[in-house]
Amino acid sequence: MARPSGSDAGVTGPRVRAAAERLFARHGYAAVSMRMIAAEVGIGAGALYHYTPDKQTLLAGLMREHLDDLLAAWGKADPGTDPVARLDAFARFHIRFHIDRPDAVFIAYMELRSLEPETFAGIEALRRRYETVPEGILRDGVAAGVMAVADVKLASMALIAMLTGVNTWYRDGGRLDRDAVEGIYADMARGMVGVERVST
Amino acid sequence: MARPSGSDAGVTGPRVRAAAERLFARHGYAAVSMRMIAAEVGIGAGALYHYTPDKQTLLAGLMREHLDDLLAAWGKADPGTDPVARLDAFARFHIRFHIDRPDAVFIAYMELRSLEPETFAGIEALRRRYETVPEGILRDGVAAGVMAVADVKLASMALIAMLTGVNTWYRDGGRLDRDAVEGIYADMARGMVGVERVST
DNA sequence: GTCTATACACTGATAGAC
DNA sequence: GTCTATCAGTGTATAGAC
After folding, report:
1. Which intervals hold domain HTH tetR-type (chains A, B) (predicted)?
2. Which residues of chain B have pLDDT under 70?
3. For residue A6, which nucleotide's C1' is closest to its Cα?
């Protein structure tokens, strides 16, 4: 039995966030109006303010949620074994997680400038925490003598940039599937940080 | 002798473009008003329309100019010798060129979505042409047997993403100077595409 | 070449009816 | 929980004086 109209039982909130995510990613935060978001959801603009106190909070919420998910997901995906295996896992995890959420990724990386200072600081701290993941892996790898990098911090930034770059061109149904892409990038990641090649 | 006021002899046009570049990079195209640009230059908003027919054209001009400069500069920097030397030159060139123009780079990469379709196509073609540079180098390197990549196109995209990523953290006067950064990245680039290490 | 004045649409956010 | 109506402010772009 269909329930009486008006009792959507908490589905509108998520729909508002989903619409905002899509539109912010597509057009940019500043270019999206609250009326556009409301129209996408199918409600009036005034009704949006039952789900967010303002536009800025809506954006910050999307970013925080994305980064929290990212950190939590790596916590589960981290094999916690030797550095080379962790590097491989990290490369594959990062690509998989990012190509599954192109909109959230784009917003989290590009709309930092749209945040007010205090909000920015909190989000930036989460980003920074994620950057320490590859740093730890590389530091361990260098210490164990199985990796060779001139600078752990630079190599970590280079690795993240390389992996995140997949989002600029990857499309489902393209020439290579996810697994192939992950494998090729994991390979390049190993070469980048000086892991000795297995087959040469 | 100072010339009579009002005869700035074509300096206002460049100042308009410079102000727009700075502001678009800082706040995003959509968040910047023509009034803000005019205020930065020190003229009224109406006077801007002597230098650009509209805001969109102003943006597209900045992007086109940046990409034209990039392609021309590589044309002069390309040593045109063996693939390994060209890879090294490309990595160093790309980093140097990009960290010297952080605003233009940010705009060219991030405001593509702010362009109307026809304008977008022209800009995108220039970007695509630049991507063929590392593709050619890697193809030659693989053919010559001095590089080993699973996929030339992916490796090119990975290389560009890695190098462009320097712009997200590099600041003049930081821990490492330009030349050191270039050297470290050129090293990682070699490892990434399977060039045999000299010192091991 | 720059100014002021102006057009008219749209902005984020609020108030109060239902 | 959603609606309509509304606020004060700002958006791009143009017209015409100087």
Report:
1. 10-70
2. 1-9, 198-200
3. D1
B9-52 CATH fold: Arc Repressor Mutant, subunit A (1.10.10)
CA R_g for chain B: 20
Question: Looking at the domain that runs over A55-192, which CATH code has it been given?
Answer: 1.10.357.10
Contacts of B31 in chain A (CB under 8 A): 28-30, 114
Longest dimension (CA), chain A: 68
Q: Is the CB of B4 under 7 A from strand C?
A: no
Query: Taking the CA of residue A84 as centre, how many other CA atoms within 13 Å lie in the half-sphere pointing to its CB?
Result: 13
List the single protein residue with the shortest CA to C1' distance from C3: B44
pLDDT for B199: 52
End-to-end CA distance of chain A: 66
Give how far B76 is from chain A: nearest CA, Å.
Answer: 26
**Which of B98, B99, B151, B197 to mutate to probe the A interface, most A CBs <10 Å?**
B151
pLDDT for position A4: 41
Residue with the two structure tokens 């039982």: A9
Residues of chain A falling short of pLDDT 70: 1-9, 198-200
Decide whether A9-52 matches A55-192 in CATH topology: no
Residues 6 or more apart whose CB falls under 8 angstroms from that of B178 comprise B95, B96, B99
Residue in this structure with the two tokens 């966030």, named with its chain if needed: A17
A80 touches strand D (CB under 7 A): no
Residue pLDDT, tens place only, A122-153: 999 999 999 999 999 999 999 999 999 999 99
Contact status of A176 with chain B (Cβ, < 8 Å): yes
Q: What angle do CA A98, A103, A109 make, to 5 degrees?
A: 75
Q: Does A181 touch chain B (CB under 8 A)?
A: yes
Task: Report CB contact under 8 Å: B161, A168.
Answer: yes
Q: Could you give the percent of chain B with pLDDT greater than 70?
A: 94
B35 CB-to-strand C distance under 7 Å: no
Put simply, the answer to whether B150 touches A176 (Cβ < 8 Å) is no
Query: Whose CA is closest to A193, among B155, B187, B168?
Result: B187
Residues B127-184: tens digit of each pLDDT = 999 999 999 999 999 999 999 999 999 999 999 999 999 999 999 999 999 999 999 9
What are the structural domain ranges in chain B?
A: 9-52, 56-192
Q: What's the pLDDT score for residue A196?
A: 85
Q: Is the CB of A60 under 7 A from strand C?
A: no
